[in-house]
Structure of Nuclease-like protein:
Amino acid sequence: MILVPDLQDIERSAQSDAERKVARLLHLVPSSDAVAFHSVKLRTAPGKQMSEADFVVLWRGVVIVIEVKGGGVKKFEGTWYTIDRHGDNHRLNTSPIDQAREAMFALRNILKEDGLGWYPSEAIALTPDIEHPPADVGWKASHWLSKESMTVEALASAFDEIARSAADAPRGVRPARSEELRNRLFGQFSRLPVVDAQRGAVIDEQNLATDEQARVLAGLAKNDRILVLGGAGTGKSVVLAEAAKQEAAAGRSVLVTFMSPGLRAFFEPRLEGRSVVVREFAQLEDSRLYDVVLVDEAQDLMYPEAMDVLDRILVNGRANGRWRMFLDQNNQAHVDGRFDQEVFDLVREEGMEYDLSRNVRNTRAIVHMVQEYLGADVGDPGIVNGERIQWVPALDGESRAHALRLARSFKKDGVPPSAIWVISAAAEDSLDEVVDGVRLVSPRVAKGLEAEHVVVCDLPAEYSDLTLAALYVAVTRPRVSLHVVCSDSDRRRLQSLARRVGG
């Protein structure tokens, strides 16, 4: 069964050993369709405190909301208590079953407001440390699971019985399609991590998974070959990291690969401790086979020789194996790699295609600037907050020095140095150095990554496919603010470029 978040994250974040015990068991339940979401917080009504479901399980089209209680549980003189390992009693406001029901109804209201049709749902209690559940007329015996259900076979059988007991849709009410329900649950409960997040309105807006990202995550278990298309800032790398966790949790041998060397620093911390190999494409060895390969910035590898390598390292080959390719169809491939349209057309025929069209990195001002000057589609500008783009004048030949001075002024204003990049749009591939505490990089090093505040300098003296691609990478890296240092002649060339794009 798929766990969201994965088992390693649940082991770290769960509030009780009982929840960890249940998570380990759910992880072992053999099912490619079932998914369990852990620690789901739900607002019961406006202004009220949050209700929480320990687990929400989608099982054979039925939503099962689970309340987990470790230790003992008893009812005395009409009041419910839990009993800890020291024998001390702790009063509960209501029974575990009623807690699960409250969360179930809260979820139903949220999804109803979201336009989802009717779906079957059940609320159950799971007490893994007691031999037999307490008897009560307030619930079905099948809906309180105890120690005897704490095996893979028994738990799967119990879920089957609970699903069979779920009510059918009322007459005249539109039921939700199973795939729609699955996608909505992923959208409600998948929270994708933020890179180097500071506080502020822009960062807050970037915390939520988009509906499209949720569809990709929901579709992973059902499709062997997936092609995810999205412009810069649509969250491809973050979704890829979550996808790699799912694949590793399913017991598969997993490779994450890419052309841009800077992406290693992005993926390794996010996949640390998991059975995932993170390796640059140039360092791959044909001698090792993988059950699944995930490729980031796959537009860099859309040429015959690269596809041949993937064919050799994938179990069952590229045409019949299991892969996930994430790519930007804009002109980034000119920065690092090659893009062959015929190869791309062939790959499209082999995989299920998903689009990411909502930009979750760049502010609206940056998205509009990229569209105006470069004619590139980086998605709909979902982030409305953020500063306007700052055009900073400089003399010819002095833009880099001016950019570094500007970046140092950010530091003096309290911005952490790690949140500031200066990107030289015309720099050589390998440029990556720290100047007076400020990181100065080339577009190739920055490609696929992001920073909160970016200062772009050294604009191209003329625009070709290569220099356009480099500028595209540079101006789509920032999350919060973008400053472009340019001379009068730089600005005139940009305006001429905008007229060509617009015409």
Summary: The chain has three domains: 2-182, 217-359, 364-502. The CA atoms of residues 232 and 301 lie 17 Å apart. The two ends are 52 Å apart (CA to CA). The longest helix spans residues 96-113.
